[in-house]
Automatic annotation (TrEMBL):
<dbReference type="InterPro" id="IPR006680">
    <property type="entry name" value="Amidohydro-rel"/>
</dbReference>
<protein>
    <submittedName>
        <fullName>Putative metal-dependent hydrolase of the TIM-barrel fold protein</fullName>
    </submittedName>
</protein>
<dbReference type="GO" id="GO:0019748">
    <property type="term" value="P:secondary metabolic process"/>
</dbReference>
<dbReference type="Pfam" id="PF04909">
    <property type="entry name" value="Amidohydro_2"/>
</dbReference>
<dbReference type="GO" id="GO:0016831">
    <property type="term" value="F:carboxy-lyase activity"/>
</dbReference>
<dbReference type="GO" id="GO:0005737">
    <property type="term" value="C:cytoplasm"/>
</dbReference>
<keyword id="KW-0456">Lyase</keyword>
<feature type="domain" description="Amidohydrolase-related">
    <location>
        <begin position="126"/>
        <end position="310"/>
    </location>
</feature>
<dbReference type="InterPro" id="IPR032465">
    <property type="entry name" value="ACMSD"/>
</dbReference>
<keyword id="KW-0378">Hydrolase</keyword>
<dbReference type="GO" id="GO:0016787">
    <property type="term" value="F:hydrolase activity"/>
</dbReference>
<dbReference type="InterPro" id="IPR032466">
    <property type="entry name" value="Metal_Hydrolase"/>
</dbReference>
Length: 312
């Protein structure tokens, strides 16, 4: 039987730059560049994405930007869906750089795209909440938060206000977790927010405040190596029932460990497209569940379908 797939973590457009409208343009063709994202995928995501070496980090940051320009358009997203025979892609905008409207428009052109929205922190809190409610009426399936790119901590009152709109409706909220830079030293964008805003403890504090909400720390808590253990510890200690995570940048061994630690019902397949490599991510996740068809179908499809209100 064909593996049903919902990719719970993908992006459309340039999530790093405001007003770089690439979503509806033809993909760019760039000269060949060193691509650690590709190498990591081909290596089975055995190494952490974020290394300490500054040169390696700069190469990674460059590659991330190049991948966006090459693969961030709707045309590329559709090709990716087709190539990997995906059923759905959850598409996560990050204001002020990419918007719900952009993602919603893409979902009308490609119904396999499921749009999330992002809080507009430039608005007064009440207006921000009203806009989010309007987005839900328009078709937003959940909320994406990015504390580093948005420069708002997960423990900020404005974050709470946005999260409550979705949590009270039992709609999923996912947040970037991971202490990493998005811009190289000297970039005019550097230090809009400190990378420490991505530290897992902020997310854990958010979950502690709202244990009844569906909250999804992305990347199993981070991309530096062992954050998933800290996340799993907290989930077990507090007996949180509504915390999920995605498998982006995780190899077979970590996925298996996560199943042991937080259970197959709480894991969502995700690639972090355009940064993750779908082909290897799918293969690794299948390998982690070899001989366990039912658990594989949960992680690839049913867990996400339940959160998104899709009939499984
Ligand atoms: Zn992402």
């Amino acid at each position: 039987m064909r593996t049903r797939i919902i990719d719970f973590h993908t992006h459309l457009g340039d999530i790093f730059h405001e007003n770089k409208n690439i979503s509806f343009k033809a993909p760019q063709h760039l000269p060949k560049y060193k691509d650690p994202f590709k190498e990591l995928g081909e290596g089975g995501y055995r190494a952490p994405l974020i290394a300490d070496d500054p040169d390696a980090l700069n190469t990674l940051i460059d590659a991330g930007q190049f991948r966006i320009w090459e693969k961030g358009s709707l045309q590329s997203v559709r090709e990716e869906i087709e190539r990997n025979r995906m059923d759905y892609m959850v598409s996560l905008p990050v204001l002020p750089n990419t918007s719900f409207e952009e993602t919603l428009a893409a979902s009308k052109l490609e119904p396999k795209i499921l749009p999330f929205t992002s809080p507009d922190f430039s608005l007064p809190v009440k207006e921000m909440q009203e806009k989010l409610r309007e987005d839900i009426r328009m078709g937003a399936r959940g909320l994406k938060l990015h504390p580093i790119l948005q420069n708002v901590k997960l423990t900020d009152k404005r974050t709470y206000a946005a999260v409550e709109v979705f949590g009270d409706l039992k709609l999923p909220v996912t947040a970037h977790c991971g202490v990493n830079d998005y811009y190289k030293p000297g970039s005019p964008y550097q230090n809009i927010a400190p990378k420490e805003y991505g530290a897992l403890h902020y997310m854990l504090a958010l979950i502690e405040r709202y244990p009844q909400y569906i909250l999804i720390p992305a990347h199993a808590g981070g991309e530096c190596g062992k954050e998933y253990l800290e996340l799993a510890d907290a989930v077990r200690k507090h007996k949180w029932k509504h915390v999920y995570t995605d498998t982006s940048f995780k190899g077979t061994e970590v996925i298996k460990e996560l199943v042991e630690l937080i259970g197959e019902d709480k894991i969502l397949f995700g690639t972090d497209y355009p940064f993750g490599e779908a082909e290897s991510s799918i293969a690794l996740c299948k390998e982690a569940f070899s001989g366990k068809e039912d658990a594989a179908d949960k992680v690839f499809y049913r867990n996400a379908a339940a959160l998104l209100g899709i009939m499984a």
